[in-house]
Write a structure and sequence with these properties.
- This protein has 288 residues and is an all-alpha fold.
- It has 14 helices and no strands.
- α8 runs antiparallel to α12.
- The two termini are 42 Å apart.
Length: 288
């Protein structure tokens, strides 16, 4: 009987020395503490500098309440519209072959490379009183710039890639076999989408919606240009923070910032949970 070969020693994937790995981890923690945790701590500290009562009293300001309401209304309008656009764009790109597909993907990524301030300026030039489209709309009683519609449009522009960019790789990974099988068995297009496509993309869709919502609530640059910063009418939470801070209302500014940061942290927790489910979905897709 031939002797069994000696087991080969598996090479370690990580070859760096232990001190180097520890140094890298400590460096990352230090950078996160300096750029993320310290500013967050300072925001909540300044918000409570005069006590919880003073912080809560700042929300009794009608302008602050209107800013919160307008921010939520903008997100409620912009996020579902971007979700519909993201699903349609991802469906077209992942399920069909057509000339200009790469160019369409580039256009979807455009808001990532264009400054939000430039986007807001373009909306002002297009829909403002001096623009051809804006002058016609104002003449017919439809004001976009310096009004809520302009804020919604600016928010939609800066946030519309998030859902599409999350759905495109998932739909491309899943392919078209299941949808084609459902259509072959007699299912309608809507039923195929509702019973086959949507369940397969639900976690990626929720993940993209969360990212879109976080950006929508925190958008400053584009909204600052198109809103006109009219008190009690076109001021969102980020703009209210800036105005309160410039007027030396530190408690009001930092309290609003703390509320916005809290909403961001809640979004981050939900994002992490969905990321965990999203990773399981991708692993299952690879196994199949």
């Amino acid at each position: 009987m031939a002797p069994r070969p000696a087991p080969t020693r598996r090479r370690a994937v990580i070859t760096e020395p232990g001190w180097f790995r520890v140094a890298m981890v400590l460096l990352v923690i230090a950078i996160l503490g300096l750029l993320l945790f310290a500013p967050l701590f300072e925001v909540f500290k300044q918000a409570l500098a005069e006590g919880l009562g003073a912080a809560l009293a700042s929300f009794q300001n009608p302008d602050a309440l209107h800013a919160i309401r307008l921010t939520l209304i903008t997100a409620v309008i912009a996020v579902p519209l971007n979700a519909v656009f993201g699903i349609a764009a991802a469906w077209a790109i992942a399920k069909f072959d057509f000339p200009g597909k790469a160019f369409l993907i580039t256009l979807i990524d455009l808001p990532f490379s264009v400054s939000p301030v430039v986007a807001g300026l373009c909306l002002v030039l297009l829909f403002g009183a001096n623009g051809a489209v804006g002058a016609w709309m104002i003449a017919h009683g439809m004001q976009v710039v310096f009004a809520v519609p302009g804020i919604v449009l600016a928010t939609m522009f800066v946030t519309f890639p998030f859902v599409a960019r999350e759905l495109i790789p998932v739909m491309q990974e899943q392919g078209r076999a299941e949808e084609e099988a459902a259509l072959t068995l007699g299912a309608s297009g809507w039923r195929t989408f509702r019973t086959v496509t949507l369940p397969n993309i639900r976690w990626a869709l929720l993940y993209g919606v969360l990212l879109c919502n976080a950006r929508a609530m925190g958008e400053f640059g584009a909204v600052a240009v198109v809103s006109g910063k009219i008190r009690g009418q076109t001021i969102t939470m980020p703009l209210m923070i800036e105005m309160s801070y410039n007027e030396y209302l530190s408690v009001a500014a930092f309290t609003m910032a703390a509320l916005l940061a809290t909403l961001g942290l809640v979004t981050l927790v939900l994002k992490s949970l969905l990321e965990w489910r999203y990773a399981d979905q991708l692993a299952a897709a690879h196994r199949h």
